[in-house]
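SEVERITY: medium
COMPONENT: batch folding queue
REPORTER: lab tech (J.R.)

DESCRIPTION
The queue accepted two submissions in a row. Attaching both inputs and their returned structure tokens so the on-call engineer can compare them side by side.

ATTACHMENT 1
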Amino acid sequence: MRKTEPIKRQEIDENLVATETMTVYTPKELAIFLESCKKHGNMKIETYFRVLSYTGARKSEILALEWNDINFDSKKLTISKTLAEVESSPNTKVTKVASQSAKTTAGKRTISIYTETMTMLKKWQIRQKFEFNILGFKTTDKHQLVFPNRENKFCRPGQANDWYDVIATKYNLKRITLHEFRKTHFSLCAMADMSLEDIMYRVGHKDSKMTRQIYNYFYPEREERSADRFAQFIEKEKYLF
């Protein structure tokens, strides 16, 4: 990669999305998937996919989470890091997994977390401490990972794909990519009538075009709804001015 030239960023054609098909989980399909994770019986995997689905974060952002990134009192989660495979030495092809700061200011964000998800995280924290104590690992370090590997170190970025493959195969589920979990979150936020700006902040998008592309695809009737709301407002308030 040191010998390659950067690819020039291309402008996103916001109308192109109308001719493409985006694959995501519907609310029912997502519920079935998360229930399958629960049936599988691995609390770490169950909690990981719950956080992935309910935050819209990237898979490696979640793998980089530390417990001090989670405020259980305010029900907030701070995303500021991601995992990446980097060269151990410029002279070798050996790589290691390392935590890196988010590439953009927008990528660093603090978002609200649903109560049930926070409860699941708290249960996983207790379970993690119990399991690692048996294995002889201490979990008192302030940088303790939320989703480490069995050696209490960084998981490789592709580990989450393996977890997903196990669940999807075992329960014969519809398959999407882990990045499409992120698009699933976009779509459900749009269906929940969240504003484009709120969704952009939640998922850490600096450029609105990427978010808008998905937003327009799953929420094409927003203009009609806006017109209806405006008309209803005028009818309701016309005698007050």
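ATTACHMENT 2
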Amino acid sequence: MLPPSERVLRAKLAAHTSWANTEDRTARTVNGRKAFDEKFLAEANGDPVRAAHLRKAFFARLALKSAAARRRRGGAA
């Protein structure tokens, strides 16, 4: 069994190689983006305006967590 650090390096190598060989990056991620948007639409019971706000709240929450993590590490907030 490989040590975790080597598994991470192998995974990074595979990911970078795969993306380097991808001509249409948008087409490759379309299913994931669609599922992500549908998650918010389902949570909003089909209301697209509410879904947009839920999506914005999701990213605002991520930004807040990121700022707190940077502050804890002593970086810029």
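NOTES FROM REPORTER
The chain is about 80% helix and 0% strand.
No errors were logged for either attachment.
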